[in-house]
Specification:
alpha+beta, Glutaredoxin, Glutathione S-transferase Yfyf (Class Pi), Chain A, domain 2, 4-stranded mixed sheet, 7 helices, globular
Length: 213
């Protein structure tokens, strides 16, 4: 397998974390999304949406981080076979992309690279949304160790990918006792690793070429 990824991206990190915990061999292909490397005709053949990550397997290309998580986790302890629990995992994967990434991930990226300041109106709105996300997670985790079925699944991996970096979005996790305990439990899982890199200088506004400019 080959993973096309960008190391600072938490969407890409989620896939690397699962691969590490599954102890699966694969080749990493670094794609600098702010150097125009997803804008080429060659990359469009890999992923017409021009995003990362993409998993190449059996000469096929699978984009979208959570689709990759499902593909890799199928048949393993990271994805339940019970119909209800499986649907619960899907629920959290959807929520991660619609709310967690939007509020925590989008805010984190724009603050880290100087595209917003904390006082920008949109940053204030996203910060409020991030606290809504964390309150929901904190309430859900009050009576359970993990998000689904009392065991560690790709639902935890997906949401952990951005939640553990909330401090980079200037979000204080101190009020969220259950979330902080859950973060520690994730980090205690066998095979856990963390290798998210800082954004490069070309991620700053006007400094590079990407689908985000």
């Amino acid at each position: 397998m080959r993973l096309y990824h960008y190391t600072p991206s938490c969407n890409c990190y989620k896939v690397r974390l699962l691969l590490a915990q599954l102890e699966l061999p694969y080749e990493r292909v670094e794609v600098d999304i702010f150097a125009g490397e997803t804008l080429t005709d060659e990359y469009a053949q890999i992923n017409p949406a021009r995003t990362v990550p993409v998993l190449e397997t059996d000469r096929r290309y699978l984009p979208e981080s959570n689709a990759i998580l499902v593909y890799l986790a199928t048949g393993t302890q990271f994805l339940p076979t019970d119909r209800y629990e499986l649907a619960e995992v899907v629920r959290w994967l959807v929520y991660e992309q619609t709310d967690v990434v939007m509020m925590i991930g989008g805010l984190r990226f724009r603050l880290l690279v100087g595209r917003w300041t904390p006082n920008d109106p949109e940053a204030i709105l996203r910060a409020a949304g991030a606290h809504d996300v964390l309150r929901l997670l904190d309430d859900h985790l009050a009576a359970r160790p993990f998000l689904v079925g009392d065991r560690y699944t790709i639902a935890d991996i997906a949401i952990y990918g951005y939640a553990h970096r909330a401090h980079e979005a200037r979000i204080d996790l101190e009020p969220y006792v259950n979330v902080r305990s859950w973060l520690r439990r994730v980090e205690e899982q066998p095979g856990y690793m963390e290798d998210v890199a800082p954004y490069g200088a070309n991620a700053a506004p006007g400094a590079g070429r990407s689908i985000y400019d």
